[in-house]
Design goal:
Elements (H helix, E strand, L loop, with lengths): L1 E10 L3 E11 L4 E5 L6 H8 L7 E6 L2 E2 L2 H4 L2 H10 E4 L12 H11 L4 H14 L15 H13 L5 E5 L7 H16 L3 E6 L5 H4 L2 E5 L5 E6 H6 L1 H6 L9
Parallel strand pairs: 3-8, 3-9, 6-7, 7-8
Antiparallel strand pairs: 1-2, 1-4, 4-5, 9-10
Helix pairs in contact: 4-5, 4-6
Length: 247
């Protein structure tokens, strides 16, 4: 589904975020992007979602180059946007419409779905996430956990094949964290391709099968099975994910 070859990204032509990153993502995989803050995980998610574009190397999605030029084609852009969705760490940057209903419907309408189809999809995802009572609320009336659910609903309503999560459990209360972890696991079991960026190691073995670990030099330290990564203290220490005194 994705192939990166020698991928690099530099901010303002001076500050590297990714250096010589290569990998493949196959249909149905559940992958963790691991690394300390600033290692490039969030940047990579934005690149995979076509929000920013690499400054070095090549990235293909579904066998075609994923570039600013390719996404300028309305048909290519619509097809890609219907297949790949992202849930940001900060829901405030993702939830902006006047009401929850309008927020969830926004993507469908932008891609040209009919009002009838959009309404049906919106109702389905509201019921699936059990947030019908939020339908007519405005974003400022929502708690952090509720905003996260609405942001997720705005992605799931598109029924994407690939779902990208940036630090999905950050700043959530324990109940909402547990709910979201269960949902991500269910999405993986349903055949969705799930890629999540995190530095939280506690739930990885349940959520992902494979982990790509980034060092503080913005390069890939390892790409292997999640359980192997979690058992390799030397790599976790090298990536600044644990301290050598941690039990």
């Amino acid at each position: 589904m994705f192939r990166a070859d020698g991928l690099g990204y530099t901010y303002l032509d001076r500050y590297p975020a990714l250096e010589d990153v290569s990998f493949q993502i196959r249909k149905g995989e559940r992958i963790a992007l691991l690394g300390a803050n600033g290692s490039g995980k969030s940047t990579l998610l934005k690149i995979l979602d076509g929000l920013v574009f690499p400054t070095a190397g090549e990235l293909t999605a579904y066998g075609q180059p994923l570039t600013e030029e390719s996404l300028a084609d309305p048909e290519v852009n619509a097809r890609f946007r219907s297949r790949v969705g992202i849930v940001f760490q900060n829901s405030d940057v993702q939830v902006f419409s006047a009401t929850v209903r309008e927020e969830i419907a926004f993507g469908c309408l932008q891609l040209g779905l009919s009002a009838t189809e959009t309404a049906a999809r919106t109702a389905d995802v509201l019921a699936m996430l059990e947030i019908e009572e939020l339908t007519e609320r405005t974003p400022f009336q929502l708690s952090g956990g509720q905003k996260k659910k609405v942001a997720l609903a705005s992605v799931l309503v598109m029924n994407p094949e690939v779902i990208l999560f940036d630090e999905p459990t950050a700043a959530l209360d324990p109940r909402t964290q547990h709910w979201l972890i269960d949902l991500i696991a269910q999405l993986g079991q349903a055949g969705k391709t799930v890629v999540l960026a995190t530095h939280d190691l506690h739930t990885l073995a349940d959520l992902t099968e494979r982990a790509i670990i980034f060092g503080e030099d913005h390069r890939v330290l390892a790409d292997t099975r999640t359980r192997e990564i979690l058992a390799d203290r030397s790599r976790l220490i090298a990536a600044n994910l644990i301290h050598d005194h941690d039990v």
